[in-house]
Specification:
CATH topology: Thiol Ester Dehydrase, Chain A
Oligomer: single chain
Number of helices: 3
Helix content: 10-25%
CATH superfamily: Hotdog Thioesterase
Shape: globular
CATH class: Alpha Beta
Strand order of the largest sheet: 1-2-3-7-8-9-6
Strand content: 35-45%
Number of strands: 9
Order of helices and strands: EHEEEEHEEEEH
Largest sheet: 7 strands, antiparallel
Distance between the termini: 55 Å
């Protein structure tokens, strides 16, 4: 099975493409997906090397987006990134995602980032995504309203 995966909410606004460059994203079966992408040069953290924030953001987006494809609306509960080797900018990359475990509303996910054609992981991720309750954002809006009301 190979299906296109929808863009995240932020990227669906207008006709923008994915802000992380993860436009070529496909699901392979029910528990695995892959995305082809390239880190743009304006996300350099060092000379010709991707910034760790870009790498972290790409993992958060791709792992969560895979669940959205399966019809689950989730939020990230935790995300751990291991930076193993430099990730060069402007080079084709493959980010693999996998559902490792399902525990009620929780999905334990893993991911790996490699140069296209290379079998060595440049970075890996592991995290937990929790299926959102219907009032998830209502609760957050109420908290923000309360904070604004109590601000000096």
């Amino acid at each position: 099975m190979k299906d296109n995966i929808a863009l995240c909410r932020g990227c669906r606004v207008g006709t923008r493409a994915c802000r992380f460059g993860a436009n070529d994203f496909v699901a392979i079966g029910n528990n695995e997906g892959r995305v082809r992408l390239t880190c743009p040069s304006d996300f350099q953290g060092g000379p010709n090397v991707a910034h760790g924030g870009w790498i972290s953001g790409v993992f958060d987006d791709a792992l969560g987006r895979f669940l959205t494809h399966g019809g689950l609306l989730t939020v990230t509960a935790s995300l751990t990134i291991d930076f193993l080797m430099p990730v060069p900018v402007e080079r084709p990359l493959i980010l693999a995602v996998r559902i490792e475990e399902v525990d009620g509303r929780r999905r334990i996910m893993s991911g790996s980032l490699r140069l296209e054609g290379d079998d060595r992981d440049r970075a890996t991720a592991r995290g937990v995504w929790v299926e959102r309750r219907p009032d998830h954002f209502d609760r957050h809006r109420a908290q923000i309203t309360e904070l604004k009301a109590s601000a000096p």
